[in-house]
Design brief:
Structural class: alpha/beta
Oligomer: single chain
Number of helices: 14
CATH topology of the largest domain: Aspartate Aminotransferase, domain 2
Strand content: 15-25%
CATH class of the largest domain: Alpha Beta
Bound molecules: pyridoxal-5'-phosphate
Number of domains: 2
CATH superfamily of the largest domain: Type I PLP-dependent aspartate aminotransferase-like (Major domain)
CATH architecture of the largest domain: 3-Layer(aba) Sandwich
Order of helices and strands: HEHHEHHEHEHEHEHEEHHHEEHEEEH
Distance between the termini: 41 Å
Number of strands: 13
Shape: globular
Helix content: 25-40%
Largest sheet: 7 strands, mixed
Length: 370
C-alpha cells in the first residue's frame, strides 16, 4: 500500500490552523468508516444528495442543505443559482452571463482570495465602501436589476469598514436580493450552523474539511429551499458549471457522518480541553525570555483559545526563525506568527494530546532551554 513514508513525504503536526495547504483537518474514525462503507455500493447520486441534504437540513435546523466539493465550490454553485436560478437554458450558458443578473455585491474590505470562486461564474464583483467604513446607502445604491446576490464574509475579527450582517440582511430583504454568508471557517460555535440563516441570510456556506473534520473536499451549504433547489441544477452529476466540482458518494456520506458527530459533541467539554491545552503550554514554557499569553478568539473569530509565545531579545532565535525551524524538523511542526512577529502562535484545535509534549521539547531544544 502506498504511504506518505514510502513516497518520502514528511508528515506534519498542525499547530497552526485548518489550512488546505497542509491538509485541513483529520477525519475521525467514524467519518473514515462512513466513507469506506459508502465506497462499497452504487447509489443514485441525486437521490443520495436529496436524502443526505434532508438529514443535514434537519441536523443544522435549516430548511434545506446541500453538499458541495468544498466551501469554495459552494460559493461558485450558490452564485450560479443566484445568477441563473433553475433555468436550464441559462445554466447551460454559464459562465457567459450576458443578459442575466450578473453582479455580485461585496464589501471592499471583505475581498479575499476565495472570491475567485464567485468570479469564476462570470459575474462582476461590485465593491462597496472602503477599508475604513461602509455606509448603508452605499449598499442601497449598488443594488440594481442586475444584482444577483450580496456576499458577506462573516469574520468577527474583521469588522472594520463593514456593515453589520443585520443591516445587510435588512437591505437585501427590502430589495428581494439574496444574502449569502461565507462562513467557511466560522465554527465553533456550533450555533453558527443555524444562526446566520435564522437571522435571515438566504444561505450560509461552511467548509466540511475544517473544524467539522469531514472529508477535505466537502462543503456544506444550508439555507432556503428555493435557492438550494436551484443549486442542484448547477451541480454534478448534471453537465453544468459545477460538473467539474463533483461530489462523490464517499464524500457525501463522510460529511454527513462528520456533521452528525459535530452536532452531538459535548462542545463545552471540547472548549475545556482546548483551554487545558493552552494552559499546559503556558505551564510548560514558563521560562525567562518567554511570555506565554492566551489569545481569544480564533483567527477569524471562532470561539476557541490559542497560545501566543512571545520571545524576548535574550532568546537565541527570532520568532520567525523558531517558526521556520519547527517547520523543517522531523516531523514538521506548523505554527503561526503573532501579527507583530515577536512571537509564535500555537493553535490547539488540530492537535492530538501526545503532540503537545513533542512541540514543547522541540521548542526547548531549539531555544537552548533546560
Ligand atoms: C477556507 C475558506 C474557504 C474555502 O473552503 P474550502 O472548503 O477549502 O473550499 C472559503 N472562504 C473562507 C473565508 C475560508 O476561510
Amino acid at each position: 500500500m502506498p504511504s506518505y513514508k514510502n513516497l518520502g513525504v514528511r508528515t506534519l503536526i498542525n499547530a497552526v490552523d485548518t489550512y488546505t495547504i497542509i491538509g485541513g483537518s483529520l477525519m475521525p474514525e467514524e467519518v473514515i468508516h462512513a466513507m469506506v462503507e459508502a465506497g462499497k455500493s452504487f447509489v443514485n447520486i441525486e437521490e443520495l444528495q436529496d436524502k443526505a441534504g434532508q438529514r443535514l437540513a434537519q441536523l443544522t435546523r435549516n430548511e434545506s442543505a446541500l453538499i458541495t466539493n468544498g466551501a469554495a465550490a459552494g460559493m461558485a454553485i450558490v452564485t450560479a443559482a443566484c445568477v441563473a436560478g433553475d433555468d436550464l437554458a441559462k445554466a447551460e450558458r454559464l459562465p457567459d452571463t450576458l443578459g442575466m443578473k450578473n453582479e455580485v455585491i461585496m464589501h471592499r474590505s471583505q475581498r479575499n482570495g476565495y472570491d475567485h470562486a464567485i468570479r469564476q461564474v462570470g459575474v462582476k464583483l461590485v465593491e462597496i465602501g472602503n477599508v475604513d467604513v461602509t455606509y448603508p446607502w452605499q449598499l442601497e445604491s449598488a443594488i440594481n436589476d442586475r444584482t444577483a446576490c450580496i456576499f458577506y464574509f462573516d469574520a468577527a475579527t474583521l469588522k472594520k469598514g463593514v456593515l453589520p450582517l443585520e443591516t445587510v440582511i435588512e437591505i437585501g430583504q427590502k430589495h428581494g436580493i439574496p444574502v449569502i454568508v461565507d462562513a467557511a471557517a466560522q465554527l465553533p460555535p456550533v450555533e453558527n450552523l443555524w444562526r446566520f440563516t435564522e437571522m435571515g441570510a438566504t444561505a450560509a456556506i461552511f467548509s466540511g474539511g475544517k473544524t467539522l473534520r469531514g472529508p477535505q473536499c466537502t462543503g456544506l451549504v444550508v439555507g432556503k429551499r428555493d435557492l438550494i433547489h436551484a443549486c442542484r441544477i448547477h451541480m454534478s452529476p448534471r453537465h453544468s458549471i459545477g460538473r467539474s466540482m463533483k461530489v462523490g458518494k464517499e464524500e457525501m456520506m463522510g460529511l454527513l457522518a462528520a456533521v452528525e458527530r459535530y452536532i452531538r459533541l459535548d462542545h463545552a467539554k471540547v472548549t475545556h480541553e482546548l483551554e487545558q491545552r493552552v494552559q499546559l503550554i503556558q505551564k510548560s514554557l514558563n521560562n525567562p525570555g518567554l511570555t506565554v499569553q492566551r489569545v481569544f478568539p480564533g483567527p477569524v473569530g471562532q470561539h476557541y483559545p490559542r497560545a501566543a509565545v512571545i520571545l524576548d531579545s535574550s532568546m537565541p532565535l527570532s520568532a520567525l526563525e523558531l517558526k521556520n525551524q519547527l517547520e523543517w524538523g522531523e516531523p514538521g511542526i506548523m505554527v503561526g506568527l503573532t501579527p507583530d512577529e515577536q512571537g509564535i502562535i500555537i493553535n490547539p484545535l488540530n492537535l492530538q494530546d501526545h503532540e503537545i509534549p513533542l512541540i514543547i521539547d522541540r521548542m526547548k531544544a531549539l531555544l537552548s532551554m533546560e
